[in-house]
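Task: complex structure prediction.
Instruction: return structure tokens for all chains below.
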Amino acid sequence: MTENPKQSPLTANPYLPEIGTIIETIQETHNIKTFRIVLGSEERMQNFHYEPGQVGQLSVFGIGESTFVINSPPTRKEYLQFSVMRAGEVTTKLHSLSKGDRIGVRAPLGNHFPYESMKGKDVVFIGGGIGMAPLRTLLLFMLDNREDYGKISVLYGARSPQDMAFSYELPEWLERKDMETVLTIDREAEGWEHKVGLIPNVLLEMAPKPKKAVAVTCGPPIMIKFTLQALKKLGFKDDQIVTTLEKRMKCGVGICGRCNIGTKYVCVDGPVFTYEQLRELPNEL
Amino acid sequence: MTILTQLKEQIAAQLPKLDMVIGWERGYDALHATPLFIRAAEDVERLQIGPLAVHNTATYLTGLKNKKVGLVVKGCDSRAVIQLQQEGLINRENVVVFGFPCDGVVDLTKLRREVGDLGRVTEVDASPTELRLNLDGQERNVALADVLADKCTRCRFPNALVHDHFAGTPREAHAVDDDYADVLAFESQPLEARFEHWQQEMSRCIRCYACRNACPMCVCRDHCVAQSRDPHWMTQDDAVREKWLFQVIHAMHLAGRCVECGECQRACPVDIPILALKRKLNKEIKEVFNHDAGVDPNAIPPLLSFQVEEENINERGW
Amino acid sequence: MAEAKFIANDKLTAWLDELSATMRVLAPARQGDAVVFVPYVAGQNVELGQEATAPPKSTVFPASEDLLRYDYRKNPENLGQVDVELFPTITPEPTLVFGSRPCGARGFLIFDRVYDGAKYKDPYYLARREATLFATIACLKAENACFCHSVGSAPGDAAGSDLLLTPMDDGYVVEAVSKKGEALLGSSLFTAGKKKAGQAKKLREQALKDMGEPQDFGPAKDKLLALFDDMGFWEDVSAKCISCGACTYLCPTCYCFNITDENAGLTGRRVRSWDNCMSFQFTLEASGHNPRPTKAHRLKNRVGHKFSYYPALHEGIIACCGCGRCIKSCPVSVDIREIVTKAMAHQPPAVEEAAK
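Output:
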């Protein structure tokens, strides 16, 4: 459909997906599957510009669309990666797709992580479950621009070892000397050599220093709630905490009217917000 | 003492034991009453009954589980309470029913047919036989009988069938039996004419589901097949086929349960006469099972029961 | 603009016949007990006396429309490979909406700011918007539920219309509001209206005067936000609401929609349809979490959107045209004016205590 590979089709018709092709899938966990997708042509891929934290709508025609973060960084553009947790109608159908299947893509949508203003600072990533996906984008982007950032720490927690996504790159993260990686699971499991305990508690143990630091967190609401408390205890201010939100979305372009929190539409004004920004919004998460 | 005064006294006495009492009050203009949620003693004064108190207060019951709710009911409203009780959808102990003898309520659609646009009514005075309106500066008198809701002209149960408190003295019923003359008349038309009728009427449906949400017996609400993708029986297209399908499903789900309060039709903002579909099914239920919904708290709705041999179903007899 | 014209009552049908020969004309007609906009066919009755039950919203924003059609095709070279091709479906038809009231036409001005946004434009809406003209009839008498004068409009408001017709005893004074409207005034059925235009203006001004003092809803913008966490207030004002969609679907400014796919074998459609913020499903997430789980949360958003969030984003403009349909068509007579007024007057309980 895209005649001009340089132009985002969203400009002409924001509802019209591009057709992408799944080049690889990875079964991350029992309910998370990753899709690596390329758009129409190599030229189109090269002209596809996005920022870490931006999202896309994936379409299975006949079922519908759903929003996912592009979790591969713009510094690695061989493909666009999306990780999908099975929850509803669209995600269930997505899980049945495999290499070679066509898929609709409307991207990039939304805002992005404030990676410019994070330059020179220490960055603490705190991800729970599928919430690690958006963090991965920024993490890889920073690793690809390593000299721009201070200390990088990652705390990634999941229910059990089997629930850990991105297992293929965790060893590399653990080994790298230019970052600190801590993995944790909720309960003891055989053969697990890392931390056991809830994310907020492990975070307090890690005790990252708030001075010239930014914490980036994403995960289930209950984890976020207690992680925020932990971060505050450690001395992080609301403007030093960044998160990315999820809402039910349809249009993705600020028109259809369902993902607002007061005046802000998560699909265009978000999904990335600092806690300082969220505090200004009505309490409706 | 008037019935209204008596009701107010009864409510005021019970209110301390209840989370709320639901009745009616004057709405945004003289012609429109609106449901009143009495929570504080001073709210009681606003209570209104009479021919404009059209809403079925029982509609709110299933949304107020675990609350102690007082309900002011007309006869038809009380049938909904009974039906909900029959089906175990409410705990009767949590409901205190305030009954009164109902003289019938006005069908505003019929009134509009009589006097024209109702947007500028400034005064309404109702006597037992007449409705006096000031419409756009002009006095209009309308015989109540001409604008009563159809359900009232054939009402067999004007007094609450179930109540914990009753104000006034029970009145006589308008009718002893329902002959379903309206259904029979409609059915006597050729198929094409009936099809054309529904095509026309359903074409202006806006799919707002006021019919569903106003129905005291429509209890799926947030999980309705109308929006469901699993099962995916209906599309969201603005098409008569989809709209009509929903009405048929609605009617089927109400077979033997519909108390004919008429709220579905009254709530319809584009005046689609959908009560007819439910009347048709009630007529069949009456013929086959001799069952009236919402009359006896201890009855079992026929489509919720199974008997090996139904008296009026001649199994394998066709 | 061209001078005012006049069309006599007995020429109106002939004019509609002329117009409908060149484009689709939608006019209010009585259908059962309702008045709805339907395609005009020569000689058909037009109901101009009673305000239409439903506004002409669907003319530019249909209750449902296909955003695209898709075809799946098996690749003959590789049978395991299924290709998909998309066909966007934008099909505007030149249309004249005849006989709407000012509030019905003005609703699209609220849409425009969202559908013709700085970053994203909705090509389906914009194509229809461009192709649709409005010949609007000024109101000379407000109804009990009307409050257009309190939301920045008036019974004779021409904003959003192309022609404004003012009813006189013997016909209508017809004035062009836009260039496109002016082009519709070529018919020989018109006579000069200049002399009557002054009287028409007076009638419109009188109609506004008759509505009395407008209410100032401006303070609602901040007050509704201040009340956001006061769920007691919202539960109270939403108690009688039955959470249906009559208010939103009959609202000339409610613009929210749903998108659903409809599959039929190897082909199908992506459908956009009206959606309703009073519905539980509107914000229900796949996880089961719902940020607006009760009707109190949902009504809060509906009122907040119209009287606070939208004005905050759009120069104080209230996303309501005061037509009153949400009031008069509500099965339980929920009155949005009353809710906003209550909100503006509401004192948090703690403050009341302190005042005693």
